[in-house]
TrEMBL record:
Molecular function GO labels: DNA binding
Subcellular localization, as worded in the UniProt entry: Cell membrane; Cell projection, Lamellipodium; Cytoplasm; Nucleus
Protein name (record): Switch-associated protein 70
Database matches in Pfam families: EF-hand_SWAP70_N, PH
Coiled-coil spans in chain: 328-549
Subunit structure and binding partners: The SWAP complex consists of NPM1, NCL, PARP1 and SWAP70.
Organism (species): Ardeotis kori
Length: 598
């Protein structure tokens, strides 16, 4: 009943939207209420009473008055009428009504207002049939339209019924022009399209009318096949020509094709069968329809007609056994499901495209963040270098002051020892040499300290570059994996995502360039590290040589400044915290870590 209700609503929607509106935008109340006449004047369109009449539904004027009372609770509007229509009319429909009469009543209400005034190649009756076909093929959403796929299906059916060839290229041009402006056609635009003869050129009005009638019989009246055949009587056993009409569950036969004088029905169900009979009684092309209570002998005009009727009846019985709808209704449902599936796939593809676009934007933001971090790191490194240079200048100034003080002390000592004998002259000379050696030792220790600071700075820079290189490699691998997954998509997705892939490749090339730049920076850091290492080794060698000299003149040192007898390393800030052996052990450890990182 849900499908029947949807079909009824489409026709009622046309009639309802054609009603006159009052100044407030609501439907006039007199056009919805019942009148005393059984069939009111179409111009007035007493919709409610007419619907109850043609649908064989009992009319309830009390419920109508209650629903459409003039207050805020029951407005006479589009929203107010639909609940009444569903509750008091459509819910009571049983299916025992004439669909053609129902559609004709709705057509009468809306045709005069909407039908084109221009001359058409089809009659009003044909226009009515096209309107009913539109309601059958239109989408289940309002306002009603028929999509290009259903327009193509209908025009193909009409062209086939007219015996003409289908012009696919012409329709493709029309479809392109249609898609650029809107989603589909209304009922009246479809009538204008068929009535204009654009797709039936060379055909006369009668041929077009017969084609519309044939498609109408198939799609609306569920006529699967019809034609003249001879039927054998059950009582008199005589053969009489009848017009047979095959529908999904019945075969009706009439005196003629005008369908005015109906002679009987053959009720079909899953237990019926049809089989060919041999020629007898001077009749040829015989076949038998077996039902539970009765059998029917029928003679076709030729073997081709006989085979067509047997096949059509057997197909109908098979559909009844399977509980399937008629072929044209099943085909319409499949077309709708296919359109819904394609729409869902298109929406999913659009969603994926948006996700990829968002991912690309996020990657761009990440790259911008990395760039800013690199700039900040470079700024910090410059600041640290500035501080280091400032510290070095301060140390040099302090050492200069210490040297000045030392010179003053030496001058005083020279004045004090000037009075000593000549045998002490050699001793003083050696003292001056030792002081010079001490000065050089301090400078060597300062070079060693500076070399160690440079080594530490380069090591930190190298570690940071390695971390950034590792992050970049992980990011590139992630992009590469995403690209591999994208390549595995279907060919249709590849075409749709081609532009996105180009953008990704550009981003990948930029990232590769950044990685190469990081690699160059890392190599430069390694070269700086090697230079610092060489400086450190030279400083260590200088320190060792000066240390040997200091050890050689150890006695003199004790004369100037007594200290510990154990050979400790001396730095700018005093005795070192570790011995020479420990220093050599640490150098070996640093060399091993460097070899591992390389």
């Amino acid at each position: 009943m849900v499908g029947l209700k949807e079909e009824l609503l489409k026709s009622i929607w046309h009639a309802f939207t054609a009603l006159d509106l009052d100044r407030s935008g609501k439907v006039s109340k007199s056009q919805l209420k019942a009148s005393g006449a059984a069939r009111p004047d179409p111009a007035r369109g007493v919709l409610s009473h007419n619907l109850c009449t043609v649908l064989n539904v009992p009319h309830d004027p009390v419920a109508l008055e209650e629903h459409f009372r003039d207050d805020d609770e029951g407005p006479v509007s589009n929203q107010g009428y639909m609940p009444y229509l569903n509750k008091f009319i459509l819910e009571k429909v049983q299916g025992n009504f004439d669909k053609v009469e129902f559609n004709r009543m709705c057509w009468t209400l809306c045709a005069k207002k909407n039908l084109s005034k221009s001359a058409l190649l089809i009659s009003d009756e044909d226009a009515f049939k096209v309107w009913v076909i539109f309601n059958f093929l239109s989408e289940d959403k309002y306002p009603l339209i028929i999509v290009p796929e259903e327009i193509e299906y209908l025009l193909k059916k009409l062209t086939e019924a007219m015996g003409a060839g289908w012009q696919q290229e012409q329709f493709d041009h029309y479809k392109i022009a249609l898609n650029t402006s809107r989603e589909g056609l209304s009922a009246w635009e479809l009538i204008d399209l068929i009535g204009s003869g654009q797709f039936s050129k060379g055909m006369d009005r009668q041929t077009v009318s017969m084609a519309i009638n044939e498609v109408f019989n198939e799609l609306i009246l569920d006529v699967l096949k019809q034609g003249y055949m001879l039927k054998k009587g059950h009582k008199r056993k005589n053969w009489t020509e009848r017009w047979f009409v095959l529908k999904p569950n019945i075969i009706s036969y009439y005196v003629s094709e005008d369908l005015k004088d109906k002679k009987g029905d053959i009720i079909l169900d899953g237990n019926c069968c049809v089989e060919a009979l041999p020629d007898k009684d001077g009749k040829k092309c015989l076949f038998l329809i077996k039902c539970l209570d009765k059998s029917f002998e029928i003679s076709a005009s030729d073997k081709k007609k006989k085979q067509e009727w047997i096949q059509a009846i057997q197909t109908t019985v098979n559909l009844l056994r399977a509980g399937s709808p008629p072929p044209h209704k099943e085909a319409r449902q499949k077309r709708k499901e296919l359109r819904q599936k394609l729409l869902a796939e298109q929406e999913e593809l659009e969603r994926q495209m948006k996700e990829l676009q968002m991912a690309n934007e996020n990657k761009q933001k990440e790259l911008e963040t990395v760039r800013k971090q690199l700039e900040a790191a470079a700024a910090r490194a410059a600041e640290e270098e500035k501080k280091r240079l400032q510290t070095q200048v301060e140390l040099q100034d302090r050492f200069s002051l210490e040297l000045e003080r030392e010179k003053l002390v030496r001058q005083k000592m020279e004045e004090q020892v000037a009075q000593k004998s000549s045998e002490l002259e050699q001793y003083l000379q050696r003292v001056r040499e030792l002081e010079e050696m001490y000065k050089q030792l301090q400078e060597a220790l300062e070079d060693e300290k500076q070399a160690r600071q440079d080594e530490e700075t380069v090591r930190k820079l190298q570690a940071r570059l390695l971390e950034e290189e590792s992050a970049k490699r992980a990011e590139l691998e992630k992009w590469h994996l995403q690209q591999q997954q994208t390549i595995q998509m279907t060919e249709a997705e590849k075409q749709e995502l081609e532009n996105q892939r180009m953008i990704k490749e550009q981003a990948l090339q930029v990232a590769m360039q950044q990685l190469e730049q990081l690699e160059l920076e890392r190599k430069e850091a390694l070269e700086q590290y090697e230079e610092v290492k060489k400086k450190l080794e030279m400083a260590a060698n200088n320190t060792k040589s000066w240390k040997d000299k200091v050890a050689h003149h150890e006695g003199l040192i004790r004369l100037i400044e007594p200290g510990s007898k154990s050979p400790h390393l001396i730095t700018n800030w005093g005795p070192a915290a570790f011995t020479e052996a420990e220093l050599e052990q640490r150098q070996k450890s640093w060399k091993g870590k460097k070899a591992t990182s390389d």
